[in-house]
Each structure stands twice: as C-alpha cells, then as structure tokens.
Amino acid sequence: MGKATVKARAPEAELPLTPPTFQILLTLADGERHGYAIMKEVADRTDGGMHLGPGTLYGSLKRLLEGGLVDEVGERADPELGDERRRFYRITPFGIAVTRAEAQRMDAAVRAARKKKLLAPRPA
Amino acid sequence: MSPAERAYRLMLRLFPAEFRAEYGREMAQLFNDRRRDAGAHRVQFWAAMIVDTARSAPALRLGKWRAQAGGNFHLEGRTMKTMAILAILIGTLEVVNSAAEAWVGGLVLHG
Lengths: 124, 111
Prior knowledge:
heterodimer; A: alpha+beta; three-stranded antiparallel beta sheet; 4 helices; 46% helix; B: 84% helix; 0% strand
C-alpha cells in the first residue's frame, strides 16, 4: 500500500475533513496513541457525542495512512490496559498542516456566523 | 475467545478481506475494549457496533472497487447505493455461511 506523494499536495487540497477524521488528527496532534486511546479521547472531548466504532476508526486510519497524514510507529503494550500489544499511530508534519488548515477553515466559518449574529460574540 | 467476540469476528467478514487482514485484530481489540466499557448497556453497545459496521463496510468495499477500476470509475448516486446494498448482502451471506459451517461442524464433532 503506497503512500501518496505528500510533497506535491497542499494541505488545503485535503479539506474539508470529515468530523471523525478531524477528531482523530486532533487527538494525535500532541502525541502517539493506539486505537482505544484515540476512541476514548474523542469521546471525552465531544462529551460522548462521538463514539468511534472499529469500522469508522480503522477505515479513517487507513485513509490517513495512505494519504501520508499519519504513520504507524510499531506495537507495544499499554501498561494501563494489560499485556496485549497495541499498534500505535502518530501524526506526520503534513497531517499537522492539514489539521491546522481545517481548524482555520472552521474558525473562519465561526467568525462568519458571529458576524451574522448567529453566535454570541467572542468573549473579551 | 468469548461468544461475543466470535459473533463480532463473523460481522467483520462484511469488510473487504485485505482490510480484515490488516486491521481485523485491532478491530476485535477495540470491540472488546468498548464491550468492557459498556458494562450492562449491552443493547446500546451491540446497536452501535451494527450501525458502525453497516456504515463503514460498504464504503470500504466501494473504495476497493474504485481503486481496482482506476480513474474510470464513475457511478451515479443510485447505482452506488445499489452496489453498496449488494456488497452488504454478499457479506451477510458470507457471515451466514460461516456460521452455518461452524454449526454443522459442531454437530459433526459432538453428535
């Protein structure tokens, strides 16, 4: 399974991201995680609004790996979860750039909604 | 392997074979992790697993077909929906066949 040639692609070309994809990248932005840890952090961050199932999570990770936004970093046990070996994932520099671009896109949308008074003004 | 994991591994046959080979073990791991977290809420848990499979398996099969067809794979929305349903039916038949084989095998072994 070859990775795309990431150098030739602008981060903006990957947008918009699906909500699960953005949440997975956001989770990996500050460190390596295995699948269960990604699922837990996304559920916590969204106050239970998004529970990633195995098909959704690994389907998304497959696309992110193929697109060069995420790398695999081998298998090891998580001491908090016992001896079972788990595959860890980390975000790539290109993945960081895409996540930042998506956050900026959403920020622009929120600013437009505030301008239209659909959202409360940003607190001072 | 618990009966629940055995049932989920049957459901995994709805996904493309290459995807199962690459991610099947991790998907079963996550299934067991979420089942542990679900505690007594088994009905909601199984509903979530079925919905997750129903949403993600057809997309992955269609993605595989697109990759095999190259750049000339253009389908209308209704045709894609039909193919997705067919993919799920094919996968469901595979699951039923595997379950039947396991049941018959058990009858033969244990009388």
